[in-house]
Design a protein that fits this description.
Radius of gyration: 19 Å
CATH class of one domain: Alpha Beta
Strand content: 5-15%
Order of helices and strands: HEHEHEHEHEHHHHH
Structural class: alpha/beta
Distance between the termini: 31 Å
Bound molecules: zinc ion
CATH architecture of one domain: 3-Layer(aba) Sandwich
Oligomer: single chain
Strand order of the largest sheet: 2-1-3-4-5
Number of helices: 10
Length: 294
Amino acid sequence: MTSGEAKGGDVFAGTLAELTWYEVDHAARSGAVLLWAFGVIEQHGPHLPTGTDVYVPSARLRAVQALLAERGVQALIMPPYYWGVNVVSGSFPASYSVRPELMREVMVDLLAGMARDGFRHVFCFSGHGDALHNRTIHDGVRAARDRTPADTSFVTEPALARRIGLDLDDPSLTLYGPDEPPPPGPADVHAGRWETSLMMHSHPELVREEVRARLEPSGLGASDLAIWRQGFDAARRVTPDGYFGDPAAAGAGEGHRLHALAAEQAADAIALRLRRPPRLRPPAQTAHPSRTEE
Ligand SMILES: [Zn+2]
């Protein structure tokens, strides 16, 4: 298994898809945890590929895996899930969506298989900021906690958890990073400075550099963001080119820093959860299952 960067955009690189069943079985019996990213195929402006929300978390999970190994935790990476939910980009080409209930049930079926293999901890990450996509990940995680014995959790930042209306004490969350409001100034939320920087770091060969360098900043603020988040045609009117932020200001060095920081924070949060097992809910048998301490 490798923790290196994928060449040519291979999202199977370093994942369980490269292992044999013997190796996976042995890892499960040895107490390995699973890391799993939930992305989407979605437009990312004229300069980034539609798989950006799969490539970025895939690179992050390879870094998290290496950092966990340094902390004595063995982790396997599931191949990324990439048929997610698109509301914001729903009116653009190359932005595909499934019904949330369908995604939730696919998650539960696959998480049941992982629990059956003997994996006790599954850490689910999001690669995509769409509110409904993230509520769906949370729904899938909660349903899997009800229906399987594994401690499955959604690894996310406090700001995202708040934005989608979750309680920060929710036992299905593994929170990482500081709990702080977004910085003041023009918003940079989609295919802008930070996301483009991450792609310039992890997959520079997939960035349309000659296009990126000439893009004007979208210069949009909080009121535009509220309209954009309504999605579909409203979002396409606000950002006709598909990016919300300042891609020309991006850089590979900044991407490297953001990538390393997020991976470090996530690995710390996972290691902390593994040291202090949270309350687990047994598989539901009654309408009102009671919680038990593990
Ligand atoms: Zn994205």
